[in-house]
Structures are given as C-alpha cells and as structure tokens.
Design a protein that fits this description.
Length: about 160
Amino acid sequence: MNTILTRQTGIEYVVEDTFTYANPTDNHIVQRDLGPVVNKNTEWGDIVAFRDTVRTDPNGFNQDFYFVWDLENGDTPVTQGNRVLAAAGTPGSDALIDDTATAQSMAHEALHFFAITPRTPYPGQPNHSATTRELLYPLENQAGCLIPKRDIDSVHIALGP
C-alpha cells in the first residue's frame, strides 16, 4: 500500500497492533456471530466498535482497517471481475476490507479516508474518478495506480505544513 501511496503523496501508513490478545480486559472479539459473509451495511457498527480510540498520529489522521473473511455490500458481493474489492465507510472513517483484497484496494480506500474528490468524477459516484489510469477509478480490475497531484494537493493543504 505504501508503495503506491508514499511515492506519489508523501503519506505513509504505519501498522500498529492495537489488539492485545494477551490482556483479557482488551478482548477484541465481536460479540455476535457474523456468519460466513460479513455485510458492510448491517454489521459495520459491530466491527468498528473496536476502533482505536487513542489516535497517535499528531495530525489526527488515524485509520483502522478491519479485515474480514468474505465481504458483501448489502446482498451484493463486493467484487469486480475476479478481483475482491474493499469497502470503506465515509471520508475520515475506518475501512472494512476483505482479507483477499490487494494493496491497490487498500490504497484506494486510504484515499477515501482523506476525502479526495477527483476533478473528473465517475458518473453517479463523485468520490470516484472517471479516468481508468487513476487509483480512484471504481473498477479495480481496470484501474491504474495514478494519484493526480491536483487531487492530493487538497489533502496537504488540509494537513498544513
């Protein structure tokens, strides 16, 4: 994921293990059976209940990724062609990711976290790009990895010097 993001944006994601299974009081087990498929629309709240409440990034831009075994968006599998896609919440939120998703999917969701709005929006999806070579193109099996400077500039302006 950082191979895609850091070179083009200067943004680097750092893995922090916030789940300490050795401590019985820090038990991060979803308290209900999610079944063989996780539905992002109905089970999002149950999963992100374990979000990291202590945000360690000095700019406040912490994002938690939750990996699940099989992800659906309502009754629709979150796939495109033969590639599994990720599903995010809203800008500034955590991400729910199918455990077979690619680094490209994770980088795509990371850009959604920063509320990037492409200059050439995909029809009916203003948070996705209509340009196939761009990372925010909604069909991963056709998308490239380009993050246009004009799109990421808004993030750097929001972050400040």
